[in-house]
Amino acid sequence: MLKFIRSKIDLKSNKQTREGGFTMMELIMVIVILGILAAVAAPKFLDVSGDAKTASSKNIYGALKSTANIAFAKHRAASLSASGTTAGDDQYITDCDSMVAYLEGGAWPDNTTCTGGTITLPDAETTSITAETGTSAASLSTITAYQ
User: Fold this and answer.
1) What is the DSSP secondary-structure string of 49-106?
2) How many domains does the chain have?
3) Torsion of CA 10, 12, 17, 18, to 10 degrees
4) Is 1 inside any structural domain?
5) Which of 26, 65, 71, 88 could be disulfide-bonded to 22 (CB atoms 3.0-4.6 Å)?
C-alpha cells in the first residue's frame, strides 16, 4: 500500500515538473523569422557589384578633375607661352591623349576608356573634356548621377 501511495505521489510530481527546452512550435517560428530576414537582407549583400562600380567611377572622376587642376597649376607656375608649350613641359590638356600623360603610370585606370574628348567610366557614365586654356584648367562635364 505504501508503494502504491508513493507511486501516485511520484506520478503527480512528474506531471507538475516540466523539462526545460524549446517546443517544436517555438523552433519553427524562429526558423520562419530567420528565413524572412534572409530573404529581405540577402539580395542587398549579395549584389553590391553595381555599388562598387559606381564608387569606383566616382573616385576616377574626382581623380581626373584633380589631374586637370594640377596640370593647370603646373602650367601656370611654369609661365607657359601662348602656344601652350615650352621646352621641357607637356602640352595643355585638350583631349584624351594630352590628359593621359598626367595620369599615374601614363595610362587610364582599369575599365576606363577615352576616345577623342569623351571618357567612359567603369559604370558606363561618360564625361567630356573641355580643353585647358592659358587662363582656365581643363574641365570635365558634370555627371548628374554623381551629384
Assistant:
1) HHHHHHHHHHHHHHHHHHHHHHHHHHHHHTT--TTS--TT-PPP--SHHHHHTTSGGG
2) 1
3) 110
4) no
5) 26
CA angle 74, 80, 82 (to 5 degrees): 140
Taking the model in full, what pTM does it have? 0.63
Query: Does residue 79 form part of some domain?
Result: yes
DSSP-derived letter for residue 22 is -
Are 63 and 55 in contact by the 8 Å Cβ rule? The answer is no
Cross-strand partners of 115: 118
Give 20-71 pLDDT, tens digit per residue. 788 999 999 999 999 999 888 877 777 777 888 889 999 999 999 999 998 8
* 106: in domain: yes
Gyration radius from the chain CA atoms = 35
Residue 134 lies in a domain: yes
Q: Fill in the amino acid letter for 87.
A: A
86-94 long-range Cβ contacts below 8 angstroms, 24+ apart: 92/131, 92/132, 92/133, 92/138, 93/67, 93/68, 93/129, 93/131, 93/132, 93/137, 93/138, 94/129, 94/131, 94/132, 94/138
